[in-house]
Design goal:
- Chain A has 437 residues and is mainly α.
- Chain A has 25 helices and no strands.
- Chain A has helices spanning 3-19, 24-40, 45-56, 63-76, 79-90, 97-113, 116-126, 128-133, 138-149, 159-168, 172-178, 180-200, 209-212, 218-228, 231-243, 249-266, 272-293, 296-306, 308-319, 323-338, 343-360, 365-379, 387-395, 401-424, 427-436.
- The N and C termini of chain A lie far apart (46 Å).
- Chain B has helices at residues 2-42, 51-72, 81-85, 88-122, 135-156.
- Classes of the chains: A mainly alpha (437), B mainly alpha (173).
- At the A-B interface, helix 2, helix 3, helix 4, helix 16 and helix 17 of A face helix 1, helix 2, helix 3, helix 4 and helix 5 of B.
Chain lengths: 437, 173
């Protein structure tokens, strides 16, 4: 069988299994067991067993359960409520202030949780009803919450960045840090867009800003600032430790857990039951993610065994397209795939194929994989099957899924504009990681 | 007969819960190891040689100890959009078929892993690490996790245990 027939057949089987409702890790398991038997024969089965052991023992992957634990501790201890309240006080009395509040909260919550769905569901439940009641434009508010939540996998610490970094064999620390500037850029683009919309049509935001929130005195603002200071412990114990070279990303995830415990203690929300519930939730979610990832090595080995990897690189080299065209094609494929299948499945499916191509095209790995990361994040808010959209819809019952789709499209375009800017100015992604060294 | 199966299921559930608790303790150990490493390396200039190896062992063990609970809770991520819009009867058949395929795949994978455990044991193969230990000490947990998950898949193939709509629809994003 030709390599491309094997490759296409394998991807087709996986796709059918995904859409049949089979758990993704089972779909991969089925495809891999079949692939090993057909391509290598029964002698390949011990390789499969060892590939699971090898992948599940990768030390850097320990950061996945640890970052999940950090987020769980912060959410379950109620410390996020303090953050919410304080940022609300700190956002000034500008027209459309709640839009700014949404973007700011998304960025901060995203940074602390790293999971877009959780942030979309939380902000959808906490902010959306109030915004609608105050006369904010429903579509802008919904689009902003969904897209703001999607900054979570970009702004560090990000689970997806760790997964992409470990499979693509690129520095996880650099990939994490690389997300800071693009995350802020995208947040800035969203705010500018909203203010432009308000400038064109003032009805997009209520005119009576004072009615939204009473006067906040300077003292209250200082107190709000003081109240969010303990979060600096979490941020410093993660990003600070990585940037100062004190800890590796995995170690910083552990110090981040300690930071979250200290923060919860400062807010007097620390108790054993909360800690235990957080640990149990973290290990089960992590097992779910890592069970899928455990299949990744054998999938890569099978691709190499069929000759698909080398032939694909050869094919790409012979296409004669320029790097930019290739980049656009390579970003378009996962973007479309993410509309239909789960993000982690797309990562697992595409990275082993892309990795040698990225090397042969001599792309900066941090820059390319960050673009890839933003791109697949965008896939989760792109209709028809965006998980973040579904998470948001679940908490906003008065909006139909079509309403959510319509609200999201402008922000999808803004995301694409952001990606375009990062392609034109790679330093946005590479400057900070290069600074760290 | 039903009583016997109920008892077996109860033992299966109990084993799963015990394994999940051990997995959680494993995660706490990973946090402790890493914090200990950072403190000893940066405050006492005395890096350890064992933390990295032990974290990798504990990670693998914890993941596969927790896997049966994920399967029990039907918490695996899946794309259920098409299944959700199917008529209930048809989606029921789909769920049963997927459960049986799941049982077959996980059971076979557990068997492969068991063969490898036995090979590692008989040939005294150690892990490639600074602090090396017999490889089967770690890899046997993979067999355990896959086997217990396989049994859940078999249990879920029964019409009364089919996946609910909300299950297996999580996502990690």
């Amino acid at each position: 069988m030709e390599w491309y027939t094997t490759l296409l057949l394998g991807i087709a089987i996986l796709f059918v299994l995904f859409l049949s409702g089979a758990p993704i890790f089972l779909a991969f398991l089925f495809a891999i067991l079949t692939g090993v038997y057909v391509i290598i024969g029964p002698a390949g089965f011990p390789m499969f067993a060892n590939s699971i052991l090898d992948t599940a023992s990768i030390t850097s992957l320990a950061s996945i359960p640890l970052f999940i634990l950090m987020g769980e501790l912060l959410f379950r201890s109620g410390t996020m409520d303090v953050l919410f309240d304080s940022i609300d006080k700190l956002v000034g009395r500008v027209r459309g202030r709640q839009y700014v509040l949404v973007v700011t909260l998304s960025a901060v919550f995203g940074a602390l949780s790293g999971v877009a769905m959780a942030v979309a569901a939380m902000l959808g439940r906490a902010i959306m009803p109030g915004m609608q009641a105050r006369g904010y434009n429903r579509d802008i508010a919904a689009g902003l919450i969904v897209s703001g939540a999607s900054l979570a996998p970009i702004i560090p610490p990000s689970l997806l960045a760790i997964i992409v970094g470990s499979i693509a064999d690129v520095s996880i620390a650099k990939l994490l840090i690389a997300g800071v500037m693009p995350g802020l850029l995208l947040g800035g683009i969203f705010i500018v867009y909203v203010f432009v919309r308000i400038a064109i049509n003032p009805k997009m935001a209520p005119s009576n800003v004072a009615s939204e929130r009473g006067d906040t005195s300077i003292g209250e603002m200082v107190m709000a600032l003081v109240r969010i200071l303990p979060f600096a412990i979490v941020i410093f114990s993660v990003m600070g430790f990585i940037m100062l070279g004190i800890a590796t990303p995995s170690e910083s995830a552990a110090t981040g857990v300690v930071g979250a415990l200290i923060t919860a203690a400062i807010y007097r929300n620390l108790n054993l039951k909360m800690i235990w519930d957080s640990v149990m939730a973290s290990i089960t979610v992590s097992a779910m993610i890592l069970a899928i990832m455990a299949m990744s090595k054998m999938f890569t080995q099978l691709l190499a065994f069929t000759g698909a990897t080398s032939e694909l690189v050869q094919l790409v080299a012979n296409l004669g397209f320029g790097p930019i065209t290739m980049l656009i094609i390579m970003l378009a494929v996962p973007f479309i795939l993410c509309m239909f299948i789960d993000t982690i499945a797309v990562i697992l499916l595409t990275i082993p194929i892309y990795q040698p191509v990225v090397t042969s095209l001599e792309f900066d790995p941090v820059w390319f994989w960050l673009l890839f990361l933003i791109n697949i994040t965008l896939g989760a808010i792109t209709p028809p099957f965006g998980y973040t959209l579904f998470a948001f819809k679940a908490v906003v019952p008065d909006m139909t899924i079509s309403d959510v789709y319509r609200a999201t499209w402008p922000f999808v375009l803004l995301f694409l504009a952001g990606i375009g800017i990062i392609i034109m100015f790679p330093a946005i992604a590479t400057w900070l990681p290069n600074l760290v060294g | 007969m039903k009583k016997f199966f109920d008892k077996l299921c109860a033992i299966h559930d109990l084993l799963t819960l015990a394994a999940a608790i051990l997995a959680a303790i494993g995660l706490i150990c990973i946090v402790t190891f890493y914090v200990y490493e950072v403190v000893t390396r940066y405050f006492f200039n005395s890096p350890t040689a064992w933390v990295s190896d032990f974290v990798s062992y504990f990670l693998c063990i914890s993941v596969f100890l927790a896997l049966p609970k994920v399967t029990k809770d039907k918490a695996h991520v899946a794309v259920t959009i098409l299944v959700d819009i199917m008529p209930a009867k048809l989606s029921g058949y789909f769920h049963t078929a997927i459960s049986l395929i799941g049982f077959g795949c996980l059971g076979f994978a557990a068997w492969i892993s068991l063969q490898e455990n036995i090979r590692q044991y008989t040939k005294s193969i150690d892990t490639l690490a600074i602090i090396s230990i017999p490889q089967w000490w770690v890899s046997s947990f993979i067999t355990f996790g896959l086997a217990l998950s396989a049994i859940y898949m078999l249990r879920y193939a029964h019409p009364s245990e089919r996946f609910s709509d909300s299950s297996m629809a999580g996502s990690a994003g």
